[in-house]
Amino acid sequence: MNRKNVLLIVVDQWRADFIPHLLRAEGHEAFLKTPNLDRLCREGVTFRNHVTTCVPCGPARASLLTGLYLMNHRAVQNTVPLDSRHFNLAKALRSIGYDPALVGYTTTVPDPRTTSINDPRFLALGDMMDGFHSVGAFEPNMEGYFGWVAQQGFDLPENRPDIWLPEGEGAVKGATDRPSRIPHEYSDSTYFTERALTYLKGRAGKPFFLHLGYYRPHPPFVASAPYHEMYRPEDMPAPVRAANPEAESAQHPLMKFYIDSIRRGSFFQGAEGSGATLDEADIRQMRATYCGLISEIDDCLGQVFAYLDQTGQWDDTLIIFTSDHGEQLGDHHLLGKIGYNDESFRIPLVIKDAGPNARPGAIETAFTESIDVMPTILDWLGGDIPRACDGETLLPFLAGKRPGNWRTELHYEYDFRDVFYSEPQPVLGLDQNESSLCVVQDERYKYVHFATLPPLFFDLERDPNEFVNLADDPAYARLVRDYAQKALSWRLKHADRTLTHYRSGPNGLTERDR
Fold first, then answer.
1. Domain Sulfatase N-terminal: where (predicted)?
2. 57 is annotated as an active-site residue
């Protein structure tokens, strides 16, 4: 097999339970239509128990592209720099002869020790990770996209994000069934697709690595026509949440902070009011729009897949589809990617090997994490996996072989220190280095450990939606202790080991792998 091409598709804010292939396999009605993603699932392997190891966007993408847990790369929030000493996928690809192209963004803030404090990249949430070759810029400030829209002849409003306001409405009070002002021919999803096809056609069949990023289904939750009316709110799944925000808030101080502080304006262009007070009709409409944004991406992927088919490159290309993180979508009275609930951390992962796949259509149940993507790509291309990498290659699963020492739990983290759009520390009475949590979760139990705040413990068999905290229940005391020890052991095992295999001695520098 001529293993030469890699297409890494990274969407933004797409939940794992919005994958029709998984819904159908688990006996649920597939309320969402994604024929092109369905094809990828039919030909490849879909990973059912896959999580991002951290949220939000910047930290999640740092883990995805370095193979490191948050506790090691320490780009703990959007706007926090990524240490330049960390190796990443792009740099690794360059070491084996690839010029890794990127469409989209990585939300990476540069190491301030490697540049000037006057570097304009510090004026934005983030920019492009070192090592990538941008062929379709989005960051900083979406200038690449807005410039493209203007070049197409569309008149941009003075406040450029107003293109996502519904047509004919001067203000938005929340979820809406109206289309955005920007036609789908000029949408951000169309832009990314056009950039990807321009790059691929320019390669003219030469080997490529392309990181193809999409902004959607990230908010604002307003879709262009005809996607705005593709789904009916009444067909959407109902939210999973307590009877009211006050009941939900009682579970934990961090939950209360987010329920009290989330604003609608971050999710609906121009909206006002609390995100926790959306009624069920609003949530169903939001989800219908979310599905419309997903279907637009699926149609765009269809164009890319068709080009690979037409040029005979489909069977020469490793294709990986994933997201940076999930989205609460009203579950637990929350919006966004925050906290400790599954909705924020469980994400899609589909991998199609080049050529005939050994397990077409398979659903793999092993616990996998976003840090596994980098080593999988390098392993497939014959490159070296960095010693510091926390993830493991997933290639054995494509052949139906689960490694004997595979992880038995999922692990993920969240650092909720102050950033310019969220300030939990003064409300919760915490120092920034106390504002963090980690999760250890298996099929039966979920343990959430906080640096200072009280822990959480859920029996997922009896309480799959995580409403009943058992951390203080004497009947579960031994289990809480056991899972706390699991969390500690996990952190000890994955402490940075970049240089720990070297030894100095009478014979000079040596290496010890075991």
1. 4-382
2. yes
